[in-house]
Design a protein that fits this description.
alpha/beta; five-stranded mixed beta sheet; four-stranded parallel beta sheet; TIM Barrel
Length: about 325
Amino acid sequence: MRALRCLLLLLGMGFAAAPGAVSAGPFEIAHRGASGYLPEHTLAAAAMAHALGAEFIEQDVVISSDGIPVVLHDVTLDATTDVADRFPGRARDDGKHYVVDFTLAELKSLEVRERFDPETGEPVFAGRYAGEGPVFRIATLDESLALVGGLNRSTGREAGVYPEIKSAAWHLAQGVDLSAAVLEVLARHGYGGKESLCYLQCFEYDEVKRLRDELGYRGRLVQLLSGGDKVDKGNTDNAFLRTPAGLRELARRVDGIGPPIGEIVGGDSPESRAIKPLVADAHAAGLEVHPYTLRADSLPRWASGYDDLVAVLAEAGIDGYFTDFPGLAK
């Protein structure tokens, strides 16, 4: 029955939530679309995420050699496309094929596949989509936002978007201002202020500051955080930014944080798990908390199942969560 309901939604035949309706508890952010069911970041994965009721749909963004923002998680193409077969001899010295070295027309000629290990050819997540053939193509950010907007109109259910600026400093070193290009596309689709259903996210603190202070972005902004004491590129001192003082500093510019779920709840078993203070500290600073990434096929050791995972994070007080399996907890 669940599969039938999803098919009917995809065909526009009803069962959509009422306009503006959201589920109880923290909202769902479809991580790379419905990536637990279809190849990540394809338009089909975004459509399925919308049909399954995700309140927001994520778009990781990189850019082509002719300056078109495209929806891909990696700055390289090797783990999600057939680029090695399609364009032999186009890899850089490190053996990898970089998105920024290909025109949009060339990118559109590639077949998008379920994520795999380029060295072995084995899928990263066994049991996920196993179809073959040239079914899926790379989408531009413009196409992805247009799809969400069209589905919002046809279903009467308003889903938001959640783009991520990927490797901003690396792109600048390649001579490309990815953030500026992304903001132009967002503005064209009406995502510019905090009244719009859009969160813009980035791991690099220097770029987050630049988005707000230099490029003048006025929409909702999220600082993504890595776990542990890692200092990421872009002057991102993750350990400091998770402290009450760091969170207060972030609150001067951003609306929320996106930490890994291990910074919300810790433990080696359901019996030993414990909720950490990060959510309470972030809320005290006026920040939302949207942890990543919930996967039904890759649970933390402290969760007895996917429903338990969602329930414990909700108990911790999170505001939203990234999931590969939108709709599963609904």
